[in-house]
Amino acid sequence: MNNWLHVYSEADVINLTSTRENELRYWQSLTFLEPNSQLNVALKDAAAFGIKYVLVGINEDFGPKANCGKGGATLGWQAFLQRFLNLPCNDFLTPKDVLLLGEVNCDDLQQQSSNLDNSNPEQLVALRQLCEQLDERVVYVLSMIFAAGLEPIIIGGGHNNCFGILKALAQTKGTACHAINFDPHADFRALEGRHSGNGFHYAHQNSYLCDYHVVGMHEQKNNQAIIAALNQAQYSYISYQDILVSRKYSLTQACELGLKRFANKAPLGVEVDVDSISYMPVSAFTNCGFSVSDAEHFVYLGAQQANASYLHLCEAAPGNHPQGLAQGMLEAGQVLSGLVCSYLRAKRHKA
Ligand SMILES: N=CN[C@@H](CCC(=O)O)C(=O)O
């Protein structure tokens, strides 16, 4: 049953692509699955044929809305595809082990969320229930990818989806996982119903997460209950202020503090909320964040770990760009593509 996954064929993305003479572009040598195949078998076959990385999209924004935030994260995946698919293949970019799988089916949930107002308490509860339903679909799709021994790169939607990804990884591997998160928000808010601000807390509560490190957590963007819950769980963070204000740690050191602790242990999730990056079009805009290359460096260091099992890039909201949607698509697409290329680059340097 592929109900929770829309498996792409080339026809699904052809409108996003272009060609140029004397140039082979990424989409022209990517692998697709046969859309009507039995998914678990097809994924295992793909792995046997040398596929290692699987691109999956999630087009929703009710996760951030259920966290009392703004919408717009439905278009992150499309922004990524528009850019990434048209990158030139060259000595540095070789798609031979990358599969463009498709997107988690959630149009029906997104549709239901469009009439819900997060300032109305009852409708906020309904938004959080939609997140729970999405969690189940994310778990279903991601479990099959992990079970095939593949590494997913999950793009789009809110940070709520870290919960489903970690649950799928933990259940498939039979062990609680580690996560390292580049994020001004610890996403360890109260267990008040699912949303984009509490995915790691729910993962901890359900024993899918056994160790967690936040890089660049912003001292002005997390309440005391979040800090207390992180401390109680004995998780760690190095704040944005530690790295860029007092400069007590370099970014590399801030990442390594977590990565060294996680090394050669349980499976590791590499998480980036792109609202860590200054001027990104996102649900929670910042002009006092990190640079794109800082985020790329974070991804690079995470991906170099032998136990790195997935990359999750969330919260891009192209329509929230002050110059409009077209500019937002362009900038989000470029940043998300850069982050994916950093992940793949680190993996190849390691291999
Ligand atoms: N994943 C994001 N978490 C932030 C979001 C705030 C917002 O969307 O405005 C948080 O919980 O504070």
Automatic annotation (TrEMBL):
Pfam families: Arginase. Gene3D superfamilies: Ureohydrolase domain. GO terms for biological process: L-histidine metabolic process; putrescine biosynthetic process from arginine, via agmatine. Its EC number is 3.5.3.8. SUPFAM superfamilies: Arginase/deacetylase (SSF52768). Keywords: Exonuclease, Histidine metabolism, Hydrolase, Manganese, Metal-binding, Nuclease. InterPro entries: Ureohydrolase, Ureohydrolase_dom_sf. Belongs to the arginase family. PANTHER family: ARGINASE/AGMATINASE (PTHR11358), FORMIMIDOYLGLUTAMASE (PTHR11358:SF35). This is Formimidoylglutamase.
